[in-house]
Structure formats: structure tokens, C-alpha cells
Design goal:
With 349 residues, the chain is mainly β. The chain is built from no helices and 25 strands. A five-stranded mixed β-sheet has the order 1-22-21-20-19, with no helix packed on it.
Length: 349
Amino acid sequence: MNRRPTIAILAGLCLAVSAAPVPAAARGSATAPAGAYARLAGPPGTPPGACPTGAGYGSPLPSNSVTAPRIQGGFSFLEGPVWVADGGYLLFSDMAAGTGPYNVQPSTIRRFTPPSTFDTFIPNAGSNGIALSADGQQLVAATHDQRNVSAYRLSDRARSTVAANYQGRAFNSPNDVAVRSDGVVYFTDPNFQRGNRPDQMNGRTSVFRVVNGQVSLVDDQLRQPNGISLSPDGSTLYVGAYSENKIYKYAVQPDGSTGARSVFVNYIGGPDGGTIDCAGNVYWTSGGDSLVHVYSPAGVQLGTIRSGFTGTTNVAFGGSDRQTLFITSGPRNDSGLYSVRLNVPGYPY
């Protein structure tokens, strides 16, 4: 996400799946047949009900090369979309150019309510990538304004802190987040929005995990880790390393810990934000060629989606059946929101 100048601390997010009812915000469709959704076995993955179990899927794309129409442009620089099923709307970050002595980018969370209504949801949010908490009641945001990970309650927009620092050292500029259904949070920490603030990470750009308020290091050997996504079954964590032109994957254990990384795909154009559909297909954006590249779970490219001609930054599934892919794309000061209907439902961020 943007590589150019995303209750109490996490305890409020860590809801035990076995103890919590499936909230409307976690269900993929208000019109789904009874019994179509169930909790997933193995490591917790998507929020309960986000993907139907036992479903069979064909090709996710209508054709090998798909074009997504623009809904609206003229924004500063869009990032981090997430669909909120309870309200039937999409939230996304809109980042302006850096200001002040530290050259930090202001950011506003805006809302799109289909078919055509846009408004401001949280001003001065400081956010890049955003996701939903496990119960669907909060946004979990990579917030570069405070160099931390924050949570915003949807009901009143109140802000709290999920991850403040690592071993007393300030993060660079948290960029993107993924939230497991039991509340475990994973996030990337490149230095894209650090501005002129001091480097407390000794030149390292990293991936972190938060469990019960405790921050742990996943990997500090990646060059500019950017987008981050979990597979629907919770077994695989994907991270795009922008400065390496690679998407990596990590095996995820039930306790949230991860194994050694391996290369998922060698990428072209610098991987930005990504998402996953319910069949496990991987969608990753590229600012370099302005495409969304679509891969099978085995890393085979299935096709591409074009939205505009420059600066494609992130994607999220939404709509009542989560088969609409929303895309943020475009040059600074004319960044836009795009969408296209696909054949497989997917993750809301």
C-alpha cells in the first residue's frame, strides 16, 4: 500500500470464535440460505461466515483480461479499502501530501455507500491500510500519523491503540493489516510514510504480529513489506515485498506463529496491496503496471484486472454477496475508486 511520498488494547478485538455469535458484519450476504455459513476448522482464518464452507468454485475471472470501470475520481491518493456488511458501505483511506516539519501525510477515512454516495467517515485518521475487527465492530488501522496500529469503533469513531511500539522502539510507518477471526493482528512496517521522523528500527522494515496486546516479530529481513493478507482457512499469510518484486508466504500455526517464508510469486511492477477470495485465489495490485494480478493458490497467474493506467494500490471484496471487487487506483490528486463483478466471493479487505 502506498509506496509513494494503513474495549481496550487488542483484548477488545480478541474474541473467542467459539464464544461469539456470528455478527451480521461478518456474514457475507444477508440473503444467504440458512446453514450456508459455518466456522472454519484448523487455524482461525476469515471471520465466521465470510466464506461458505463446502462450496465449489470455477474461474474467478469472467475473462483473462478484465477492465474495472471507475466509480469516482478526484481524490488525493486512495488506499486500504474495507467493506462493512452491517452498513452496506465501503471505507477507504485518502492520503494527502506530506505536511509539517516531519513531512507526515494527513489521511482521512472516507465512505462509499453504493450506488453513488461519498462522505467523510473519520477525518484526520492518519490511516493507510484498514481492516475489520473479528466482531465487525471496529476498524483496525495501520496508522502512520502516530507510527502505530489503531482501532476505531464504528459506532462512535473512538480511537484506541492496538500496537504502540516494538520493544520500546517506534515503528517506521505501519502500512497494512490483516486480522484473524480470533483477533490476532498481522501488519507490515515499511518506511514509506515515516517522513522526516527518526528511524528507531535501525534501517529494518518488518512484519509484526499482535496477540493479546503483545507485539512479536514475524520477519525483519524484507525490503519494504507492503500489502498483507490471510488465506480463508488461516493457514497461509501472504506479504508483498515491494522493493524485492516478490510476494512471500508463511505457514501459520493455530497460535498465530509463523514458519519460514517462501516465495509465492516473483512479481512485476512492485506489489502493493492484496486480498484473497474464498477459493484461495490471490489478488495483488501493482503501481508499476497499474494492474491487479490474480493467482491461483499454487501461484499460477489466472489473469489481470485493469483499473485506470497508473498507481493501482489496493483491493477489497464487497457488496451483499462479496463478489464485487473494489479497487483504489490513479495518480495523486486524481486517485479513484473502481469496481468489477467477479465469479467468486472474497475477503472484505
